[in-house]
């Protein structure tokens, strides 16, 4: 640009932003680099090795924790997305909804409370009514705190969708169920997908609640990693971390691409 | 599936109750009320009750009304029953507040310039930069904290790098409030950048030009046009960072070490290994009250701001 | 003429707001019927009731003699062209047009034929596989029409379908809609706030205002013989003069104008003696050498040259009158500002309305 004076430009922001992205990614890169270190002491580089990946993949406790996390996340995602979907439909599309505002607040309540409070409260509840099964405890708690994350994108999508389309469907001889199946659901699907992905992410990532509620047989991945960290940093831990970082980045990219495509196609 | 809602007879206002039960919205909301009622409202009610119950002999509690849990926040009960003021827990509450506040401010200081810069980029590059801001958020939080442990810890990247520069060997930057703060800023940063970006993005560029046209320089324009108009995003970001910061557990327990506790770790401690449930519940109620106060405060300010406009 | 739709004392309120107040009228089969009125007059509410999206608080609606108030939209053989078109963005044009037929349970071959036929009819065959986002406003309009007409509804409802189009396209679509209605023989119920559209296209017009039917009639009747001040004011331009009715007989009234003349003019119904309003359309007022009928003098206080027409504002003994004159030749606009000229109108072109 030959413009000498661009009023919207603030000098120094470019380098600052570059530095910011270095700050965001350098710590993750450090883990990745250390995971290939042959030396047991992470900070001392003695050569390139992939041996820690082999031992990570053969770690039965890790695989158990991964399995637990995946099962809990799958159930919590399904339950919370279905509940969020039906709540969003009722709140945005329902007629004469009583307690509309209150219901919405209740669905979003987990966002307003510190997680540790909810976690200990749930722990007390489960010990009072004697629920000992770790998986059951985890899936119930996870379903509850994942619901608002599933709810918000679905709600936004539904609110942005013109009522005209559903009326047009009814006008063209579709009953309520057909309208939902052929018009409403396909059009809000990007929201449902984003919501489900968020719920899955939040469930997989949860430490505070899972740490308090999990039992011996139901250690989730973050809880297991926490115990490894407590035992001291190790190259094997770095390898595990690298694999998980890689998995998250791929998952995130796929999710964002799918959401963007869905949004474009049904715009 | 009845069509009463669409074709109600004349009594639109006279029989809303009957209609409500026929409307699908009741059934649509029922599951969320059941889930939240059981897994959220009921536990919160119970913990409120536990906070005024009596500590059990071997962990747990007994249903006897007792304010000892709250009293313990400020006073220590000696062997003979006399109360002695102890600032110990008050300090933890203060630290929690200060760390959460500092986290919010540091995130904000980074977020505004970075979000502004990103918003000024051409669409393609903008989308990529937003994606790059979002991406680390998908990496498990515990791993993001762990990354800083291996950077700051003994034999970590930073001490080794300093050693290389002839600083004394064996330095560690771990197990203090600074380390906790570093991890908190890092983990919550995307939660600040994204809402701030969303509101800066909506800012009409001609307003900046108008400000300059009316003799405002960059600084005046930033202070009197850009910041006021992006206030909703800044407030949203502040809530998203401040509220979880107040309840932080992972960062203080991994980075802060055993002594540098925050309210979150203090609560957790009371419920691990059968310590003092009523006291833990009381601290939890205090934390919840702090969060609620903050949320009500920002909601009122937002309402006032809206009313003024 | 059979009755396609009978609206019988339909009332509807939203909260305390009375949208429709005991509205009754019939729409004939094969008729192009327009509901005309300003926003908030209840025309859209009425249309939505015919479609089944709203139900009246009281009254009844008959579709080909059958009560439909309790029949949901998906069971009414009525289709709507929405103001926003409401094309399903995730379906191709073909799928959009087929949607209603699928829900009616037509077999595949028949649907394919009908969709092809409809797309051809609206000249969109080549775009069958496209999605609505790839279309221009006019093309969307055509697809919305094809989709609504495909199931051969008993009545087609059109909710301001031309309002989103630009001026040139709107004119072309008017002719297209009119042709389509004649060809299909389906009853069209058209809602608009644009009086020109209504006059141009309709067989009959219902003028709605304040939740009530003000007048129903052919376009000529509505324009030339408005029954009240609301209709005369809303449809076209007019001059309202405060007059005094001296004498009144069947369909005629003798009145005194504010500038002193006593004249006899048509009067719908029976005008009571005393104060009333005289309505004279500007183009019925002639100036200069064209002045005829009841003549008097006026001074030109303002003029607006519009190309084909010139609008004049006149001062007639303290009363303001507006007149418009066609510029039939290049020299048509010759009356200078400030000039005092002869003014006249034919008694039969004015109407006495209740004050």
TrEMBL record, chain A:
Keywords: Cell inner membrane, Cell membrane, Membrane, Transmembrane, Transmembrane helix, Transport. This is Spermidine/putrescine transport system permease protein PotC. It comes from Shinella lacus. The chain crosses the membrane at residues 12-36, 70-94, 106-129, 183-204, 239-260. Pfam families: BPD_transp_1. The keyword Transport applies. Residues 66-255 form the ABC transmembrane type-1 domain. It comes from the Bacteria. It is a multi-pass membrane protein. The lineage of its organism: Bacteria, Pseudomonadati, Pseudomonadota, Alphaproteobacteria, Hyphomicrobiales. It is found in: Cell inner membrane; Cell membrane. The keyword Methyltransferase does not apply. PANTHER family: PUTRESCINE TRANSPORT SYSTEM PERMEASE PROTEIN POTI, SPERMIDINE_PUTRESCINE TRANSPORT SYSTEM PERMEASE PROTEIN POTC.
Automatic annotation (TrEMBL), chain B:
It is a multi-pass membrane protein. Pfam families: BPD_transp_1. The keyword Amino-acid biosynthesis does not apply. Gene3D superfamilies: MetI-like. SUPFAM superfamilies: MetI-like. Its main location: membrane. This is ABC transporter permease. It comes from Shinella lacus.
Automatic annotation (TrEMBL), chain C:
Pfam families: ABC_tran (PF00005), TOBE_2 (PF08402). It catalyses: ATP + H2O + polyamine-[polyamine-binding protein]Side 1 = ADP + phosphate + polyamineSide 2 + [polyamine-binding protein]Side 1. Residues 5-235 form the ABC transporter domain. Its EC number is 7.6.2.11. Keywords: ATP-binding, Cell membrane, Membrane, Nucleotide-binding, Translocase, Transport. One of its GO terms (molecular function) is ATP binding. NCBIfam families: potA. Part of the ABC transporter complex PotABCD involved in spermidine/putrescine import. Responsible for energy coupling to the transport system. The complex is composed of two ATP-binding proteins (PotA), two transmembrane proteins (PotB and PotC) and a solute-binding protein (PotD). Belongs to the ABC transporter superfamily. Spermidine/putrescine importer (TC 3.A.1.11.1) family. This is Spermidine/putrescine import ATP-binding protein PotA. It comes from Shinella lacus. The lineage of its organism: Bacteria, Pseudomonadati, Pseudomonadota, Alphaproteobacteria, Hyphomicrobiales.
